[in-house]
Amino acid sequence: MPSRTNRILEILTERGRAEVSALADELGVSQVTMRKDLTELERRGLIRREHGWASLRSTDNVEGRLAYHYEEKRKIARRAAELVRDGDTIMVESGSCCALLATELAAEGRDITIITNSAFIAAYVRDAPSVQTVLLGGIYQKDAQVTVGPMVAQCVGGFYVDLLFAGTDGYSELTGFTNADQLRAQAVRDMAAHAERVVLLTESEKFRRRGTVPLALGTKPLTVITDAAAPDLDDETIELVRV
Fold first, then answer.
1. Each residue of 39-75: pLDDT tens digit?
2. Fewer CB under 10 Å: which end of the chain, C or N?
3. How far apart are alpha carbons 188 and 103 in whole angstroms?
4. Is 174 exposed, middle or buried (0-12, 13-18, 19+ CB in 10 A)?
């Protein structure tokens, strides 16, 4: 993804909407060039344009979220990839860091199987000859491109793996890591029940947010891979890895 369109998506993620002329000035390009960039982002379904303004179509769109803190997420994904060996079968839940992890493993030519509830991730690595993908069934959430609901638990019941890689929407000192969506939080719990260990991939900004639904992973061993700005955690049972 070109860096300029990354920056456009970052700005829209931070501000919600922005004037086209202001975007052109901020990024040092002509309004003609900016309109071309926005036309392409609109064609991909990421933004909406109206009367000289641009805004995100959905904050739940994975492709759009990939651009936000992209370099931090790539570092997190690369560190997470070090935990995976050739021949492994892993679970990967939906999320932008998780999508970049799958891409990193595919780019390295890892001979792996990915079990996921993310149709986005399945499509993201579809051209990687060394990666086999198992897509879990369920109710399809269109914006997030993810399956949720009771069928996820039924489908994942036939597997048991060493590692589940998952994302998070926030953190609370009272409840731990959280998700903004009840059905996606349940999907994480259902997948975690069939993994030896859970690895959460998240940028440090999420530690300053609080989702409404606790992930509630119980006593499952938990590693968190994040960036250097992440705060210390009081919970000594959590392995915190900064990159």
1. 988 887 778 999 999 998 877 788 778 877 888 999 9
2. N
3. 20
4. exposed
* 192 within 8 A of 164, measured Cβ to Cβ: yes
CA atoms within 13 A on the CB side of 124: 27
Give the helix/strand (H/E) hosting 186. helix 182-192
pLDDT tens digits, 77-108: 999 999 999 999 999 999 899 999 999 999 99
Does residue 75 contact residue 243 with C-beta atoms inside 8 Å?
yes
Instruction: Please choose, from the candidates 224, 171, 218, the residue with its C-alpha nearest in 3D space to the C-alpha of residue 190.
Output: 218
CA distance 127 to 121: 12
In angstroms, rounded to a whole number, what is the distance separating the alpha carbons of residues 156 and 136?
A: 7
Tell me the domain boundaries of the chain.
3-57, 66-242
What's this model's pTM, rounded to 2 decimal places?
0.87
Instruction: Give the Cα-Cα-Cα angle 230, 200, 149 (nearest 5 degrees).
Output: 135
Count the alpha carbons within 13 Å of 25 in the hemisphere toward its beta carbon.
Answer: 5
Report the interhelical angle of 20-27 vs 3-15 (nearest 10°): 130
d(CA 149, CA 124): 23
Q: What is the CATH number assigned to the segment(s) 66-242?
A: 3.40.50.1360
Tokens of 27: 């990024």
